[in-house]
Amino acid sequence: MVALTLKRKLAILSDAAKYDASCASSGSRKRDSMGGKGVGSTDGGMGICHAYAPDGRCISLLKILLTNFCVYDCAYCVNRVSSNTPRARFSVDEVVDLTLGFYKRNYIEGLFLSSGIIRNADYTMEEIVRVARTLREVHDFRGYIHLKVIPEASPALVNEAGLYADRVSINIELPKDESLASLAPEKDVVGIKKAMGAVRVSESASKEKGRRTRAPRFAPAGQSTQMIVGADAAADGAILKRAEGLYGAYGLRRVYYSAFSPIPDATSRLPLQRPPLIREHRLYQADWLMRFYGFSRSEIAGEDEDLDLAIDPKLAWALKHRGDFPVDVNTADRQRLLRVPGLGVKAVGRILEVRRYKRLELADIGRLSRSLAKLKPFLVAADWSPGALTDRADLRARVEPKQLELF
Amino acid sequence: MPVVRLAHETDFDGWRAAARDLRAQGVPPSQAIWTVDGAADLFASPTSAGGVAVCEGSASATPAAAPPAFTVPKPFVDLARQVIQHRSDERFDLLYRLLWRLKDEPDLLHILSDPEVARANGYAREVSRAAHKMKAFVRFRLVHDEEGEAYVAWFEPAHRVTESTAPFFVKRFANMRFSILTPDVCVHWDLKQLAATPGADPADAPREDALEDYWKTYYASIFNPARLKVAAMQKEMPKRYWRNLPEAALIPELIAQAESRTSDMVRSAPTEPSRRVVKAAVRASRDAPYDGQAPVTLDEIAAGVDHCRRCDLWKDATQGVPGEGPGRARLLFVGEQPGDQEDLAGHPFVGPAGQMFDRALAAAGVPRTETYVTNAVKHFKHELTGKRRLHKTPNPGEVTACRWWLDAERRIVRPRVVVCLGATAVLSVFGKAMPIGKARQQALQLPDQAQGVVTYHPSFLLRVPDAKAKQEAFDAFVEDLKFAWALAA
Questions:
Q1: Do B144 and B122 have their domain in common?
Q2: Closest-CA residue in chain B for A194?
Q3: Do residue A393 and residue A245 come from a single domain?
Q4: What is the pLDDT at residue A77?
Q5: Lowest-confidence range among A171-180, A266-275, B98-107, B268-277?
Q6: Contact flag B229-A55 (C-beta cutoff 8 Å)
Q7: In this structure, are A161 and A275 located in the same domain?
Q8: FRET label pair with A374: which of A279, B57, B250, B378, CA 20 to 30 Å apart?
Q9: Chain B interface disruption, residue of A20, A50, A52, most B CBs within 10 A
Q10: Does a structural domain hold residue A187?
Q11: How many domains would you assign to chain A?
Q12: d(CA B334, CA B395)
């Protein structure tokens, strides 16, 4: 067998990693390289996207697999053991060198390392941890590290991973336990949940210690997960219910929704048709409504319901609850304003601030938000009332985007 | 008409000094003209504060002897510092207009919908976006000079943010010599100091870097051709930056090939399901064992409750939480069900109620390690409210379903005394409800030769409102524990 060049390995192992949607470098603790001997900083806030690929996704981290050899046979995954995809494996030093080389040229915020399962879960996890340890301890690397946790790995290894990583993630993969059992036979939903629970426990334990002891924080940017959309028959409501449960139980920072994407060398166990990308987009919008807009999942979609693809979930909710509108921008409280289609968290914050000094007119709202046309039927301003507009039968047609935003 | 000549494009101090003077002298915005002087030193006034601001024309060039002092809200100064980095020609004027209006409208900056405030905030947002994009899109190239390795970048920022953004790079690359060259100004870090020099030319920057090929390989490979969203990419990575991004050269080709690559993937027939599908069937059968024989060891129980499907509570729970303790114990405690903490950790009585329980055990002199501690129901029943999981009492159906496990634990451990903590435990152990207050401090006979003792659940102690009643309840609970421990001796 011919040895692969490093460049070829990089091509294979980043290609293999691209189906993981997460690339965030946000939410960690503020730190920098001053007084150290290496490079790296995180600002604790929003993270930085160093490039965007033509798929519109942010490239913030060097997102690669340590190896794409895998003993598992998950139907939706290009790296499953039964797939004929080309295989490669990085050495620990190769990953470390690439990370530092990319970082020093300001290509990336850090590393997102995952891996196929080789030999067994513990061996794989140990290799992943070794990369992080080398970066942190040998090179004093202070950039962002996101490590994938193998759910079956021993708790001690997971704990060590959390001490080096800013964020850890365990993918729940599918919204329904039954589909996981049939599409990812080696994965075990109880194992995945237990690992998430263990991460949560380590997280809170490391936060409890007094600040003066300077105990290393366990994964300061928390944990996230990913769910594949459209590989099984689960309705959007079921997907959101799973997400709601995960946020509540494990304090996840993010649930990523990844529309099942055709992969080279697909298996016949999967649906041939891929879901429209807009479905993924609507799920993110619904997720946002649950996390930042005070909506509960049951208000957005019943367990067997799908989201409306033509309009966003907040507009869909508003059209079904016209009795709650119009909302007076000069008197309504934050919760009510957040429910107005077209008003985001920032716009609501601005409205509340300005309101203390003057009565808002429609033109003011125009300068504080983006989509006045969408807003008009749902609100009352000092010089505007929608009158019968709110209750018109053809309101949906009037506010619906003329064509789908994304495809 | 006064003409203010500022030393350079981002001369905030000069602007501030001049604006302060102009406002003190009552010069309205419509009468002030702001310019940036290319040949600053010709006009530099040694007396002007903080820079090279000079006022000419009708107003006096020197500040009045003691201009009436005035203050502005601090956010205005921060806003002005941002706005001044904008490339718009009207920025000095706009800021002076705001400063002027602040005199009569002290709350002006809060009126975000005011057209001028909105414009200034818009400029500030564009500047901060430009700074953010600079952090993202600077691309260093490695060079070797007499002092060793250094990293040099050529960059064209959308606004004049180079100097304000340089400290970010210093913090990030404190131990790496670097220079960022831009048409406006260049910044250099030599491991000790940050220095600025005049703007440069792209030709001054290095042409290549060996690692760029690897970066392009990565960029091309991480792209998923099945989900082309060019507009989304361009929104965040505007074309104006492309010429200095090595990876951007690949974009047209990646877009062009995307469709054919995707249709190839879809067209190619799916591969045969492998022999491993067979394994799936085997794995699926793992849910079966509870139909068979009752477990005979505690390990079997621990493994079994995790995959128990006798009721639906497993669906929203993390894991089944089996009892814990020695295989033979004189005392067996039955609680209600695992709570939030227990569900995450997989151990019984480790949350707030567990800590209360431990305190009471210690007060009663009962060593927890010599007792077996379990729950009537092994999975956490809860309700989501917002992002919190709130405990929900299991219903009789769930208690009955889970009794199968509790009975197995009792058969294995064979305790002399079974202590029921709370109503759910009573229901599970005795099969009927009982008023706890009346049933306390009695040895109740159970069918399997063990004696039953009934007391409160430790979480009840947490909920008692006033301190005195709380202490009384705690003391009563400790008494019950002592009673049970003596009974089991």
A1: no
A2: B318
A3: no
A4: 84
A5: B268-277
A6: yes
A7: yes
A8: A279
A9: A52
A10: yes
A11: 2
A12: 16
pLDDT tens for each residue of B262-293: 777 766 655 554 444 444 444 433 434 444 56
Q: Which of A300, A332, A364 is the last residue in one of the domains?
A: A300
Note the pLDDT of residue B471: 93
Average pLDDT of span A157-166: 92
In a domain, A225, yes or no: yes
A107 and A72 within one domain: yes
Handedness of CA B293, B296, B298, B299 (dihedral sign): negative
Residue A306 within a domain: no
Range of the domain at A332: 313-399
% of chain B exceeding 70 in pLDDT: 88
Residues B9 and B157 in one domain: no
Q: pLDDT value at position A396?
A: 85
pLDDT of res. B409: 92
Average pLDDT value for residue range A16-32: 84
Which residues of chain B have a CB within 8 Å of the CB of A10? 214, 217-218, 221
How many domains is chain B partitioned into structurally? 4
pLDDT at A271: 66
Residue B173 confidence (pLDDT): 97
Structure-token pair, residue B57: 């024309």
- pLDDT of B232 strictly over 80: yes
Residue B155: the pLDDT is 97
B339 contacts on A by Cβ (under 8 Å) = none
Q: What is the mean pLDDT of chain B?
A: 87
Q: How far is B162 from chain A (nearest CA, A)?
A: 15
Q: Could you tell me if A259 lies within 8 Å of chain B, comparing CB atoms?
A: yes
Please report whether residue B347 resides in a domain.
yes
In chain B, % of residues over pLDDT 90: 70
CA angle B56, B60, B66 (to 5 degrees): 135
pLDDT surpassing 50 at residue A406: no
CB contact under 8 A, A58 and B110: no
Q: How far apart are CA A257 and CA A236, in angstroms?
A: 11
User: Same domain for A134 and A279?
Assistant: yes
The full DSSP string for B15-41 is HHHHHHHHHHTT--GGG-EEEE-SSHH
Please name the residues in contact with B238: beta carbons below 8 A apart, sequence gap of 6 or more: none
Regarding whether A151 and A23 lie in a shared domain, the answer is yes
pLDDT tens profile B147-188: 999 999 999 999 999 999 999 999 999 999 999 999 999 999
pLDDT at B61 over 70: no
ipTM given for this complex? 0.91
The CA distance from A206 to A71, in Å, is 34
Which residue, of A267, A300, A333, is where some domain finishes?
Answer: A300
Q: Which domain holds residue B24?
A: 3-132
- In a domain? residue A1: no
Left if phi > 0, otherwise alpha if psi is -120 to 50, otherwise beta: which for B201? beta
Q: Say if the Cβ atoms of A104 and B176 lie within 8 Å.
A: yes
CA distance B309 to B312: 7
Element counts in chain B: helices (H) and strands (E)? 18, 14
Same domain, B226 and B254: yes
Same domain flag for A269 and A248? yes
Residue A380 touches chain B, beta carbons under 8 Å = no
**Are residue B326 and residue B459 in the same domain, yes or no?**
yes
Judge if pTM exceeds 0.90: no
> Rounded mean pLDDT of A340-365?
93
Rg (CA), chain A: 23
Of A38, A56, A63, the CB nearest to B222: A63
- Residues A266, B270: C-beta atoms closer than 8 Å: yes
